[in-house]
Each structure stands twice: as C-alpha cells, then as structure tokens.
Here is the input.
Amino acid sequence: MNTKANILIVDDEEALCVGLQAYLELEGYSVGTARSAEEAMQLDLHEYDMILLDIMMDGMSGIEMATCLKQNNATAGIPIIFLTAKDSVDDMVSGLNLGADDYIAKPYSIKNVLARIEAVLRRAKPHQAKGIKCDRHSLNCTVDGQSIKLPRKEFELLALLMENPGRIFTREELLSRIWPDRTVVVDRSVDVHITRLRGKIGHYSQNIVTRSGYGYGWQN
Here is the structure.
C-alpha cells in the first residue's frame, strides 16, 4: 500500500498519540509521534508532510514551536494543524494568524480529523516545478529565472532527482550514483547534501520528497 503522507503528532497525552497514530496508519498514513515540542524539534522535520500539534504542553508550547517553524525558511512550508482542548474564538484566530493551516478542538471525531488532514494536504501540494531547471551541459541551475551556484555533488543530486520524478532513490543508490568512487562516504552524507540543497532552491524544496528510513525523490 502506498503511503499517503508522513505525519508527525506532537502531544503530551500518550493515549491520544497512540490512538490517533493507529487510526491514521489504518488510513494509509505514515505516522511519527513526539511527547513534547522539545522532542519534536530534535527530529528531522523535513521528513514530515504535516504536523498535528497540541497547543497546551509543558515546557515549550505548541504556539512557541509553531512560531519557530514558521520563522525558519527550511520548515515554514510544513502544514500545521493545531489540536487543543481550547476552543475559544480568540484561540482559533491566534493560531490561524500565526500561520496554522487548521484548528481542531478536542474532543474530536476521527472522521473530522481525517477530513481536515486531507483538505490541508490538497492545499499544500508542492509547487509545479516549471520554474526550476538543471542544465547538465553547463552545470547551471536556475530557479524562477535566477541562476544559482551549486557545488557539483549538489547539482548532480538535484539533476538526478528531477530527471526521475516520482521515483524514490535509496540512500545507497544515491551514494553509488553521485559518489561512485567514494572511499569514506556514509549514508548521512546524502541527508546533509539534501538539507543544503533544500536551503538553496526556495519553495521548490517542497518538491523533494523524503521517505523516512529509505531515501529521497522528486515530485512535480
């Protein structure tokens, strides 16, 4: 079964995390959990297509975490749905003004959560990649008409992914293609280059798809 999307649940209520994770996985989603904002911030958030985020948690609140994510260009595009027991109009407006994509008050029905997730994911489809091009002859990359300089390995990595839209390459495949004569190059090198690459191609960073524990691909 193809995974619909990779979702992170951040909530300090263990029973809620476990139950919601089970329901979403039955619906075909890949789901990770974190029991605090601090724990979530230690994860590679690029792996996730959406974050379900509780507002009221000990330590860093959901509002504070969301603020950090929206202020960072590398994570600003990750859709956020707030899950919270607070249901006042003021709380809803504050969350949406912050940049949240939706707001669901507890207690909630799983059907409602699923409908909201699907609606937000439809709105958050990656940018069409018409404005980004890689010319292997000149080793030149342009983003929305502007030329950008990429180290050769990053250029080769981007070009390979773009030439094979929809295909997910394992880290080992990428290593063998981009570093064929490697001596000491580990899987983590791929992750580092992907992170650097995402930081240089603007909103097209969303077109680089991560399959957790497997590898990377390109989605037009």
About this structure: The radius of gyration is 19 Å. The chain is about 40% helix and 20% strand.
